[in-house]
Amino acid sequence: MSLLEGSVGVGDMVLLEPLNEESLLKNLHKRFQHKEIYTYIGNVVISVNPYQQLPIFGPEFIDKYKEYNFYELKPHIYALANEAYQSLRDLDRDQCIIISGESGSGKTEASKLVMSYVAAVCEKGEEVNSVKEQLLQSNPVLEAFGNAKTTRNNNSSRFGKYMDIEFDFKGSPLGGVITNYLLEKSRVVKHIKGERNFHIFYQLLAGADAQLLRALRLERDGSCYFYLNHEASRVDGMDDAANFRVVKDAMNIIGFSTEEIQQILEVTAMVLKLGNVELGDEFQANGVAGSSICDEKVVKEISDLMRLQPEVLERALCSRTMETKKEKVVTTLNKIQACYARDALAKNIYSRLFSWIVNRINENIKVSDSAKKKVMGVLDIYGFEILEDNSFEQFVINYCNEKLQQVFIELTLREEQEEYMKEGIPWDKIEYFDNSIICNLIEHNQQGILAMLDEECLRPGMVSDSTFLAKLNQMFSKHNYYESRVTQNAQHQHDPSLGLSCFRIQHYAGKVTYNVNGFLDKNNDLLFRDLSQALWSSKHPLLQTLFPEGDPKQVSLKRPPTAGTQFKNSIATLMKNLYAKNPNYIRCIKPNEHQRQGLFSSELVGTQVRYLGLLENIRVRRAGYAYRQVYSAFLDRYRMLSQSTWPHWHGQARDGVEKLLEELNLGPEEVAFGRTKIFIRSPKTLFYLEDKRRLRIHQLVTLVQKMYRGWRCRTNYQLMRKSQILISAWFRGNAQKKRYGKIKASTLLIQSFVRGWKIRKEYRKYFRSGAALLLSNFIYRRMVQKFLLGLRTNLPSKITDHSWPPPPYKVFTRANLELKKIFHHCRCKKFWDQLSPQKKEVLKEKLCASELFKDKKDSYPQSVPVPFRGDYVMFREKPKLQKLQRDANEPVLMADTVNKVNRANGKMAPRILLLTKSHVILADAQGSKVKTVIGLENVAKVSVSSRQNGLFGLHLTEISSVGSRGDFLLVSEHVIELLTKLYQATLDKMKRQLPITVTEEFTVKFKEDDVTVKVIQSQKEDVTNKVTCKKKGHNHLEVSSQ
Prior knowledge:
This protein is of the alpha+beta class. Among the domains are: 629-758, 2-Layer Sandwich (Alpha-Beta Plaits); 768-834, no CATH class; 857-1000, Roll (PH-domain like). Helices cover 47% and strands 17% of the residues. The chain is built from 32 helices and 31 strands. Strands 23-22-21-20-26-25-24-27 form an eight-stranded mixed sheet. It is flat. The relative contact order is 0.07. The mean pLDDT is 84.
């Protein structure tokens, strides 16, 4: 199915009419309601997170999309991945896939789908499969250490990731390189209510065995650790223990050694336990405020993990050494400074561990040889963020998105221009917003915000976030895209939403207000040298590797680069990498804030549409020609609109397209003819062609239907005529044959009677009158005598022996059967008169059971030789059960242990069932408490399973108090006896027969709902006939048994 056929809404929004934000949102909403989550803007894929599993992924769809071009099927992420892979493999063009969107929009899932598609379509082989497996297994490791639950997303990536996948000339993966950007390490020590720390901490506590936890000095209870949010320790649908096993298996597949995995977990445990280091106030002898460790046991456990002396760690946490070229000065830290040092240490250890894991993965997946390789990059980066309180992290994230928007506009225009030049189409300059002025505002080397932030961090004297904001106000007082309270006052403006400690930037996606509090500290990102040197001196191999600057031989007084500078440099490298590749874009959109399927918030989606610049993207795409297609495909689709091209065109495809459009009177201002493609400027023109095509197809279908119906009627008439002639011939021949047969038979009969009459007349004079009758009577009596005497000597001796001698002559067959019945009834009467009243009652019950269940229920044959006991719970030996009988004031007909099926979840609970002459009593398993008393008059009918199990349902009348709560679904090992006694008790009590239905599927009523119970054959060999119930949806219960 092509993009234009059977599409819900508009599949490619370049063709959207009218083009505005309202129509764009309406189109996305309409497609989302029909579970069409992918939409195109040219070659850009818009993905709306459905928050559910849809049946549009997997090997079947991968095979489908790899056989078609980009626009030949419905919009899908596989189509974009296939286009990128084919361009890389066949055209030798390096590709990059840029995935953007805010947290919870499905970026991580989109990157997994791209990688799984590429892994599925490339060549197979042992070495290739190993490389693919390593690339795919890097995802769970990075998710464990870099993802966390936020208020917007249960599996939010808290870092940016760019992966270069390298291929050989055949398109087979050789390896890759992963680059990470700006891990949100502040989450290690602090996160808001309702969010979690990084997944690995919870996975470690939930999935590690007791021996590993002891080795890491950890407790399984997450509430013991200050750095973990106790209110959100569990996430619905996420099994931390299982995920921990997945992460360890993935590390093994990637190539981590057992020792390295153990060291990684030890470092993770160190970070977790650092939050439990409690610091208190302590005053020095000179009165200066200091700090001390409150619980030295925690420090001792951390030091053991670090393989470091506790005194060294304690000294590094509570003091600081200031070193100049001439002297060293040791100062004590007060409680606030020591807490800052502790948290800074935890953040740095975790951040460096994450970077080390990324580098270690790169070592295993990198390509060793230096041969020329093809590269496909996948960028999973944070989306534009506007929060209630935007700080340094949001500032650099939005700066990154400004750079990506700049790349997007430039590469989109460049690609558009290259296509027009290649096709020989005149190029008109496209007017668009150039956000380079905003990028320069942030990244300029001397007068940019980041440069001024670094300058303020390095400036001696009293510096603070306020002095930094004052410098910005002075530098950018007249900048069109910068404003603050000071610049507004200078222009006699007043905006109460802009705080005194805030400044605002007009980004391409809208205005964002940033709070400068914390900018300097987060940009400095300082770790005291004492802590670096202490950790370097530890005997832990991995921990020592993470802090090379702690080596005394490499001590440098040079200040390390700030966080802003590092991020700016990494973004510059990323931009250079992206400019060198052919870009492919996936824009991810979150439909609602509650992660609910089927809910579409137009306000939220509209905000993201503006953030992502989708309208601007469409306008750029439509600034030239909205639609383009190769001549052959265009002619094949629209050739039926012209008599000259329908049904066949024997010339060049371009000539056919020109002839077609000429007959449709489309002017040159609407179409342009390239070297290989036809270009259509307005979407209205394309929709006009689609309407005419739809109408023409309707006409052609009507014509085809008319011709087919005429042919079918003619063919049917001819067949009917031939059949009628054949039937008539056969009928006439058969009638003559029957008539001849009757005449022949009548003739033979007459002949036989005449011959017989002649013979009898000839020989009658030789016989006495009546001799034949006398002889025949004598012979008959002798035959009867012989038959009866022989029968007397061969009668069966036992009542259970059903054998009977056959008659010697066929004439006695009916008499023999009647004698057999008389003899059997006589023996039964004699046997019955000899039985005691108790045995007679037992046989009556067995007879009743036979009438109810014989040839209906599979377990009936096994119950025939087993006598009915009535008491299966040792009723007379249990005083509690006898008390229940006394309360009922009736004799107990049967006592048995049954299992009651829970109405909500299908689980079973044991109950004791007592059947009296008037009631069915259900008590708890100990018999101490009556759960339910059901009068026999309230039992409407019984449904019982036809299989070996003992499942049956008691259907109660709705007018009863018990029936208002619903029917009962029970399981008994003696269901034949129980239902037989219940049937007889109802007959005795109510003078009516109790309807008992034996079936594999029946319906029970649970309160207001009707639930269908279906009994299926278990796949396992189960000699115990164990019954298991499983709820299937809201109104279905599936029972599995032998």
